[in-house]
Write a structure and sequence with these properties.
By secondary structure, the protein is mainly alpha-helical. The chain has a three-stranded antiparallel sheet with strand order 1-2-3, with helices on one face.
């Protein structure tokens, strides 16, 4: 059948689909079929017409591949909407005057179908950009706020590292609208400048203070070294304690210098205290002899307990006390124990004497007897009043309470009086 003759129109759609998309006439003109007519796309003067059809069909397949790739790249997000518009325009121009055999109308339809997709992608990107922009605003606002806190604080060492880290983070963030970005950068930059200035002033003052501390500590070292050979153990130890208080009050000197100054100061102290410890050790060795003597005196003193004969205990104690003092000092480690034991005996002797005096004192006994008599009379009077107050519950309650109190006092007074018998 001639390619120019339409097949029977029993089924128009199937017939259109069955038509070839191009042909070559006997003059070598190559045609492509469009929706309304045919269009000459080339001439094929020599060779088999089938080769021409195959050649220009291959060109169509190339165009279809371009359209398909454009669709895929747009769908996958590999192309921005603007780039997609440019690419579609180029492909459309290629299709419009294509020297190719195939369903060029279908390619145009597919290219037209990309327009709403591109607009949808454009809207998606717009939303994404807005979200990312807001994230950036939030991040930069946070950084600027944290920088201001550091700028107003006194973290002079870690603060500088934190600000450097914030600057590195800021550089990784994308720019936002110029007005907002400039305002946030000014806030952040001003905070960094404020911190840097305050930090410089701080370390300048600190350097001056450390210089003063170094001068003060060198003077203290001279005093400490002058005392290091002293044998006035008690007074000199007190002076060293005072020097230590002044050393701490002087504050730190420069790093490295302070350690060297401390070693000299500590060395002078160690020299004195080591000499004192050695002298005390020698004394302790000598005092061990005294300790043996005092143990004998302690044994005799503790034998008085419990005290049964007050007069004998008092006379014995005077002799014991004299011998105790005559025995001399004991090693420091034993002072507390020995003093505690001897004072226990001394207290017992004194208390026994006081109790004996109280029990034999006529004035105290007379006062105790007088108290018993007065309380007995008061109880009799209250008892009489209680009998008369019958019928007056309030008065009875008051008198009963007073009577009970005086009876309790009388019992205690009689017990005290019995101690004199």
């Amino acid at each position: 059948m001639d390619a120019n003759v339409d097949p029977p129109r029993l089924n128009r759609m199937s017939a259109d689909a069955a038509k070839p998309w191009g042909r070559v006439d006997d003059k070598g003109n190559v045609y492509v079929r469009t929706s309304d007519a045919e269009r000459i796309i080339a001439q094929w003067m020599d060779g088999d017409p089938a080769d021409a059809i195959a050649f220009y069909t291959k060109r169509y397949e190339g165009l279809e591949t371009e359209v398909r790739l454009l669709e895929q790249r747009l769908k996958g997000g590999a192309l921005s909407p603007d780039d997609a518009v440019k690419a579609a325009k180029l492909v459309r121009a290629s299709v419009a005057n294509a020297q190719a055999i195939g369903d060029l109308e279908a390619l145009r339809t597919r290219l037209d179908a990309l327009t709403p997709t591109i607009e949808a992608k454009r809207e998606e990107r717009k939303v994404e950009r807005a979200a990312k922009s807001q994230e950036t605003v939030t991040a930069k606002t946070r950084i600027a706020g944290e920088a201001e806190k550091i700028a107003n604080g006194n973290d002079w060492r870690a603060g500088a590292d934190k600000l450097r880290a914030m600057l590195d983070e800021w550089k990784t963030l994308p720019r936002i609208d110029r007005k907002t970005d400039d305002a946030l950068w000014h806030q952040f930059s001003s905070a960094r400048t404020t911190y840097t200035r305050r930090r410089k002033v701080h370390f300048g003052e600190q350097s001056e203070q450390r210089g003063q501390a170094e001068i003060a500590k060198k003077a203290l070292i001279k005093e400490a070294e002058a005392l290091s050979n002293s044998t006035d153990w008690g007074q000199t130890a007190g002076k060293y304690r005072d020097l230590m208080v002044r050393w701490k009050a002087a504050g730190p000197a420069a790093r490295g210098v302070d350690d060297k100054l401390w070693k000299r100061f500590r060395g002078a102290q160690d020299k004195f205290f080591e000499a004192r410890d050695e002298a005390n050790a020698q004394l302790d060795a000598e005092y061990e002899v005294n300790a043996s003597k005092k143990l004998e005196v302690l044994a005799e003193a503790e034998a008085l307990l419990p005290i049964k004969n007050v007069e004998f205990a008092r006379k014995s104690w005077h002799q014991i006390a004299d011998r105790w003092e005559a025995a001399g000092k004991v090693p420091r480690a034993k002072v507390k124990e020995f003093e505690g034991r001897i004072r226990k005996v001394e207290t017992a002797v004194r208390d026994a004497g006081d109790n004996l005096w109280k029990s034999s004192n006529p004035e105290v006994q007379a006062r105790a007897n007088d108290t018993v008599i007065k309380l007995e009379k008061a109880i009799d009077d209250l008892s009489a009043q209680l009998d008369k107050a019958a019928g007056n519950p309030k008065k009875v309650a008051e008198l009963t309470e007073s009577l009970a109190a005086r009876e309790s006092w009388l019992e205690q007074a009689k017990k005290a009086l019995s101690d004199f018998s």
